[in-house]
Design brief:
four-stranded antiparallel beta sheet, PCuAC_sf, disordered C terminus, disordered N terminus, signal, mainly beta, LpqE-like, Immunoglobulin-like, six-stranded antiparallel beta sheet
Length: 160
């Protein structure tokens, strides 16, 4: 085998293996973005839609990033006085087979505390999503400081 054909065969094998790895991936991440209230904030949040296209239930159990000193899974919950409070969700977010889980403002989200650098509009922030069954999935999430919250439809009910 010549040097050129060896390189070509290696490239085809790499593409084939990469394609196979992606084909087995059952978690799909859509509409991901990260934002802070101001460019100089010390905290930020990431939002996205997680889809489990596999046949097995899964769970997002953590997120890793060098963008902040601490990264936690959070949600909002109404207390006895009707005040919304943000809480860490140590057990993670369930992701049943064939279903989606939205991480949205005012609900479940990824919280970044102690930002190690300012967030700049359009910059990509590397994150590693950690799932109970699917393992680690590395993604690059764009900073979108201008994104407006989604408006709720009149028929949509908000659960607290």
């Amino acid at each position: 085998m010549s040097f050129k054909s060896t390189i070509a065969a290696t490239a085809v094998a790499a593409v084939t293996l990469t394609g196979a790895a992606f084909a087995e991936q059952s978690i799909v991440v859509e509409d991901a973005y990260i934002r802070s209230s101001t460019p100089t904030s010390h905290s930020a949040a990431a939002f996205m839609v997680l889809k489990n296209e596999g046949e097995e239930d899964d769970r997002l159990i953590g997120v890793q990033s060098e963008t902040a000193e601490r990264v936690e899974l959070h949600t909002h919950q109404e207390d006895a006085n009707g005040v919304m409070k943000m809480l860490e969700v140590a057990e993670g977010f369930p992701l049943p087979a064939g279903q989606s889980h939205a991480l949205r403002r005012g609900g479940d989200h990824v919280m970044f505390m102690g930002l190690t650098q300012p967030l700049e509009q359009g910059k990509l922030v590397p994150l590693t999503l950690v799932f109970e069954n699917s393992g680690e999935i590395a993604i690059d999430v764009p900073v979108d400081l201008e994104r407006e919250p989604h408006r709720m439809d009149h028929d949509m009910k908000m659960e607290h």
